[in-house]
Amino acid sequence: MSRPVLRFAPSPNGRLHLGHAFSALTNARIAARLDGRLLLRIEDIDLGRSRPEFVQGILDDLAWLGLRFETPVRCQSEHFADYVAARARLSARGLIYPCFCSRGRIAAEVAERRARGEGGRCDPDGAPLYPGTCRALPRGATEARIEAGEPHTWRLDMAAACRDIPGTLVIRRFTLDGSEERVRADPARWGDAVIARRDVPTSYHLAVVCDDALQGITHVVRGQDLEAATDLHVLLQHLLGLPSPAYHHHPLIRDEGGEKLAKSKGSQSLADLHGQGVSADTVLETLGF
Question: Where would I find the Glutamyl/glutaminyl-tRNA synthetase class Ib catalytic domain in this sequence (predicted)?
Fold first, then answer.
């Protein structure tokens, strides 16, 4: 049998912090236990926030921690054609539709429906479920609007997608001791999720399932903040005929206030620690490695 394949997949929109270090080191530890390969993937579909200097920073930080990865490293921004092809397959089956709603319009419609006592459900990230405004638009009208250059996203028709599922959709979940269980997935709680954004021809969800399949990923190790997204990912894998890896979602590193570390909040970076004279060994010991 081929060796297990794992991946660490940061986004180059800032420098890595202790949470990233914990995830990378956890991936490395599990890869070693499984005698598997560990790949690095740069998830840079957000062209507005990604920076070449942050890519180099990722490489520098991981090398400082003593981690090495196979080359070449896959950068998502170089593979938009893969995601466009996957989106076209979903479109050909009538499983996605263009959405012309702005965030403001969606918020206003959701508010109106709640005022009437309708709706009110949120997705696992806490965002109101999309009310389906554009789901039933005539195809001719949507094609004309796209040809005219009107900005739009592409959304998954969740009801149609779930009708495609034969029986129960399951997630393979594994623990650090190597045991595995199968749990029922519930992708419907995400509603008509966006699978291609206005500014780029994909979303995190579509890109990640394509990349995992193309790179032969067998085990996905990532933070608990992405655990709910696995429901949507295994659905997309089913719809696209892709293999589903086994998943492990590790605890998050949190600050003194109990909040998860985040670049957007200015959490102290590994580069900051390095600059203050903190050794990589100290970081590893602090994180339990």
Answer: 6-279
Query: Residue 158 in 3-state DSSP?
Result: helix
d(CA 274, CA 56): 15
Cα(289)–Cα(283) distance, integer angstroms: 9
Give the bridge partners for 182, in sequence order: 172
Determine contact, residues 215/39, Cβ cutoff 8 Å. Answer: yes
DSSP state of 17: B
Cβ partners under 8 Å of residue 116, min gap 6: none
Please confirm whether the linkage preceding 151 is cis (ω < 30° from 0): no
Report residue 111's pLDDT band, with 50, 70 and 90 as the boundaries.
confident
204-214 vs 80-92: helix crossing angle, rounded to 10: 110
Question: Chain centroid to CA 160: how far?
Answer: 22
Any residues with CB less than 8 A from the CB of 144 and at least 6 apart, and which? none
Strand residue runs (E) in the chain: 5-8, 37-42, 74-75, 96-99, 153-156, 170-174, 180-184, 194-196, 219-223, 246-250
Structure tokens given for 23: 């995830």
Q: Which domains does the chain have, with CATH numbers?
A: 1-77+254-289 (3.40.50.620), 79-207 (3.90.800.10)
Quickly tell me which residue has 């060994």 as its tokens. 281
Instruction: Note if the pTM is more than 0.90.
Output: yes
